[in-house]
Amino acid sequence: MRKVLLMGNPNVGKSAFFSRLTGVHVVTSNYPGTTVEFTKGYMLIGEEKVEVIDVPGTYTLEPTCKAEDVACEMFKEATKEVSFQGDIIINIIDATNLERNLNLTLELMEKNVPVILALNMWDDTKHKGIHIDIEKLAKWLGIPVIPTVAVTGEGFAGLIAEIYKARTPEVRKHSKLERWEDIGKLIFEVQRIEPRRHTLLERFQDLTIHARTGLPVAALVAYLSFKVIRFIGEGLIGYVSEPMFNNFYTPLMMKLGVWLGSSGLLHDILIGKLIGGEIDYFQSFGVLTTGLFVPIGAVLPYVLAFYLVLGILEDSGYLPRLAVLLDNLMHRVGLHGFAIVPTLLSFGCNVPGILATRILESKRERFIASTLISIGIPCAALQAMIIGILGDYGGRPVAIVYGTLMLSWLLLGFVLNKILPGFSPELLLEIPPYRYPPLRILSIKLWWRVKGFLKEALPIVLAGVFVVNLLYFLGIFDFIANITAPVITGLLGLPKEAVTAIVIGFLRKDVAIGMLVPLGLSVNQLVVACVVLAMFFPCVATFSVLLRELGWKDMLKAALIMVITAITVGSLLNLVL
Amino acid sequence: MCADKKVPLNNMKTGESGIVREILGGSGLFRRLQALGLRVGMQITKKSGAFLWGPVTAQVGGTQIGIGHGMAAKIIVEVKK
C-alpha cells in the first residue's frame, strides 16, 4: 500500500489536516510535543486505498529535543524501507510563518523523497496582510505548492490531485547557514507583508502572557474551568444519568433480583445488598448495580466535562502561555513550565499524563513529574466520586481535600528538588497564536478520549466490584483489617474496615471511594480517607505505566515516597481536623 | 544621537526591538533557537519578561517564543536608539 507522510512544524494545523484527509481520530493538539505516539489512517484516492501517517510536529530533521527525536526516527523508519516506492510526503506549513517553516521543507527535499507543499492556514494570510506568490514559490522549489485551509477543506481537491504527480525534487545539499540564506532570498522574492495595526486578539494575546495581567487571567481560567466542569458534570448526572438509571434500569434490576431469589451468593454478586428493600447504587455493591453505575452514571459525566474543557484549552493555544507563566513555580518543584501539560492531562487520567512526561528532557524531571502526579493529582473518576460523596456537606470538605493535595504536591516537589541531584533545564517553546478550536477536531478528540475511558475503566470497575464481593465472602478483608488496624485506626483515625477501600484503591480509586459510603464515616473521617486514597498508591493502570516509564527501581522509590507521604499527611489531617 | 547598544535579551525593556547580534553558549542552544527561527541577524521584539528570573517572551518573525531566563541572557541584541 502506498503511504502518505504528513510532516510539518508543531502548530501548523496538522491534526485538522489529518482528519480532513482520513476522517478518523486524532489525538494531536495545539502545543508542541504531545503526540508521542503517531496516528495512522486511510484515505481513498479514486479506487486506491492509501495509508496516511501523521508524524509528530518537528522544526527540523536534526533533532534538538525529545519530541523531535520521535518525529525524526519515524521519518527515517518510513523512508529507509525499500518499499518507499510511490510514497510521498506532504509537508504542511503555516502560511503565515513561511520563513521558519521552509527550513524543514528544504531539509525534506534534500532527502530525495517526493514532497508536496501545503500552505495551510491560507485564510489567515489574508487577515494578516501577507501576500505570497505561489507560482514563483513552486517554481523556485520545484515541487507542487498548494494553498489549503484544513479546517474548512479548501484546496484539498487540488492537493489530492497532485499526490500522484509528485516527483522527487532536485536540490543541492545545503549547509545549515546556506539553507537559511537561501530561504532569506526566497522570502524576499515571493512574500510581501502589509504593515497593519494590532488586532484585538493580539492585544489579548499580550495580556495573557505578561506576568502582572497573565497570572490573574490564569487564576480566572482555572476557576472558570472548575466551575464549568462541575456545572456540566452535575447537570448530566442530575438530568440525564440518574433519571435514566432510576427510571429504566432500577426496575429491571429489581425484577432480576426477584428472579434470582432475592438472596444468595449470585444475587449478592450481581445485584448486591438491598438498602431498605431498594437498590442503592452507591452502597449495594453488585456488579450489575454499583459496578455499572459508578463508571457510567457517576464518573462518565465528569470525564466528558473535563475532556471538553481540556480540549478547548489545548486547541485554543492557551497551554503554552500557562507554561510560560508557571515556569517560575515549576522550577521550585524541580520541573519547568512545560510540565504543566502532563500535569493538567493527569486531572483527566494519570495514565496519559504520565505518558506525556516523555516530553520532559531529563530522567530526573520525569521521575519528579510522575511521582508528583501520582500523589497530588486526582483523576477525573476519583474527583467525581469525591465530589459525589463530600459535595453534600458543602464546599469546605471538598476544599480541604483539594487544598491538602495541592499543598502536598508543592511541598513534596520542593523537597524532591532539594534532595535529588541535578537541575531542571530551562524552558524554550513556541507560543502559537490564539485560534478558535476547530469544532470538528474538538468533537473527534472528545469522542476518542471518552471511548478510551470506557474501554479502560469499565472492565476494571466490573472486575473490581466482583473481587470486592469475593474477598468479603472469603473473609480475606477481615484478616487484612486486623493486621493493618494499628495504622488505619491508630494513625488515621478510621475504622479498621476502611482498609478494604485502600486495598481496592489499587484496582480502581472510584470504586474504592464508593466502598467508604456503607461505613458510615463522619465528614472528617471521609476527608482523611479521600486524601489517603488519592495519595496512597496508584491504581493498577497507572502503576503499570509508571513501571514501564520509570523502571522498577525508580518505581519502588516512587511507591515508597507515596506510602510515606500518604500516611504522614493522613495522620496530620487526622490530628488537625 | 547616541550609538546603538548591545544588551542581553533579558535586560531589554518590554516592547523594545533590536537585531540579534550574537548567541553565546554551546551549539545545542544555538540549534534549538535556530529551529524556532531565532538566528543571528533576525529582528527581535521583547514581549514580556516575567518577574523573578522567569522566562522572557519574544517575537521573532512570525513566531512568539518563550525563553528561559538563563538562555535569554545568552542572546545578545543590538537595540535601536
| Order of H and E elements of chain B | EEHEEEHE
Total of helices of chain A = 24
Strands of the widest sheet of chain B, in order across it, are 1-6-2-3-4-5
Question: What's the average pLDDT of chain A?
Answer: 88
Largest interface: A-B, 38 and 31 residues
The amount of helix of chain B comes to: 10-25%
Helix fraction bin of chain A: 55-70%
**CA radius of gyration of chain A:** 27 Å
Tally of DSSP helical segments of chain B: 2
Strand content of chain B: 35-45%
- The outline of chain A comes out as elongated
Structural class call of chain A reads alpha/beta
Number of strands of chain A: 9
Task: Give a quick set of tags describing it.
heterodimer; A: 577 residues; alpha/beta; 6-stranded mixed β-sheet; two-stranded antiparallel ribbon; 24 helices; elongated; B: 81 residues; alpha+beta; 6-stranded antiparallel β-sheet; 2 helices
Report on the structure:
- The complex is a heterodimer of chains A (577) and B (81).
- Helix content of chain A is 62%, strand content 8%.
- Chain A is built from 24 helices and nine strands.
- Chain A has helices at 14-22, 66-80, 98-109, 122-127, 134-141, 156-163, 176-190, 200-207, 211-259, 265-270, 290-316, 319-325, 327-332, 340-346, 350-356, 363-376, 380-390, 395-419, 439-474, 476-491, 499-504, 509-516, 523-536, 540-576; strands spanning 3-8, 39-45, 48-54, 88-94, 115-120, 130-132, 145-147, 191-193, 428-431.
- In chain A, β2 and β3 (48-54) form a beta hairpin.
- In chain A, α11 (290-316) runs antiparallel to α19, α17 runs parallel beside α22 (509-516) and α22 runs antiparallel to α23.
- The longest helix of chain A is centred in the middle third of the chain and has 49 residues, at 211-259.
- Chain B is an alpha+beta fold.
- Chain B contains two helices and six strands; from the N terminus they run ββαβββαβ.
- A six-stranded antiparallel β-sheet of chain B has the order 1-6-2-3-4-5.
- In chain B, β4 and β5 form a beta hairpin.
